[in-house]
Amino acid sequence: MTAHLVALCVDANDPGRLARFWSGVLGREMADDPHGDVALVPGEDTGFRICFRPTQAPKVGPNQIHLHLTSTTLEDQQSTVDRALRLGGRHLDVGQKPEEGHVVLADPEGNEFCVIEPGNSFLAGCGFLGELACDGSQEVGYFWSEALGWPLVWDQDQETAIQSPRGGTKIAWGGPPVAPKTGRNRLHFDLAPPADGDLDEEVARLRALGATRVDSGQGEGSRVDMADPDGNEFCVLTPR
């Protein structure tokens, strides 16, 4: 029995503002999260929430996870870029080449994301939120495939990607070189066992796959803080 992906969680200095930005970009409704956070409800193309949680820590360096948004036409791509800029985003130079078709942007708190050009075959059929692109090893891609029960849809040159059997957003890891961690990741996953599962049993299963328990000082008794084989934080919640 595997856990399911409940949410992509984003640490934010102003959760309300960031939620409004992403609500406007993604076209998702905002809702109160059971833990008091601000959240976006799942879209049609993916089954997980996006939650924004308060932090006073400033953003330091590139995120380990960034979003890839898809486009159907060049006009559609430009419309997404224009909408993001109007809502408070900005263009970002990460060394991309002029001939590359994707557009790199940052949200109001500097979180990187890309608007991918039309015709990208890898993201065909994935929906608007096409991919969570992660900095990570091949090993961590294998770990998350087993953790979520999502099959590998790419495994080449130490790059990996997984996707739910139901389709939707892919999660991909770029392989080496993997940037060293410089502190707590600003984005992380929340998992939960199914309703008939058990939190302790799920934690034990994930540890057997290579995860470790961590003491983040943020535990609430209803979740367990863990890290994947690359050291990236994630939370396991009570069954739901």
Describe the overall structure.
The protein has helices spanning 15-26, 74-86, 138-148, 199-209; strands at residues 4-12, 30-32, 38-40, 49-54, 65-69, 90-91, 103-106, 112-115, 129-134, 152-156, 159-163, 170-173, 187-192, 212-213, 223-227, 233-237. The chain has 240 residues and is α+β, with helices and mostly antiparallel strands. Among the domains are: 57-173, 2,3-Dihydroxybiphenyl 1,2-Dioxygenase, domain 1, CATH 3.10.180.10; 200-225 and 234-240, no CATH class. The protein has an eight-stranded mixed beta sheet with strand order 2-3-4-1-13-16-15-14. A hairpin with a 6-residue loop joins strand 11 and strand 12. The longest helix is centred in the middle third of the chain and has 13 residues, at 74-86. It is globular and about 50 Å long. The protein starts with a strand and ends with a strand. 39% of the residues are buried.
Summary?
With 240 residues, the chain is of the alpha+beta class. Among the domains are: 117 residues, 2,3-Dihydroxybiphenyl 1,2-Dioxygenase, domain 1; 33 residues, no CATH class. It is 20% helix and 31% strand.
List the helices and strands and how they pair.
Blueprint: E1 4-12, H1 15-26, E2 30-32, E3 38-40, E4 49-54, E5 65-69, H2 74-86, E6 90-91, E7 103-106, E8 112-115, E9 129-134, H3 138-148, E10 152-156, E11 159-163, E12 170-173, E13 187-192, H4 199-209, E14 212-213, E15 223-227, E16 233-237
Parallel strand pairs: 1-4, 5-8, 9-12, 13-16
Antiparallel strand pairs: 1-13, 2-3, 3-4, 5-9, 6-7, 7-8, 10-11, 11-12, 14-15, 15-16
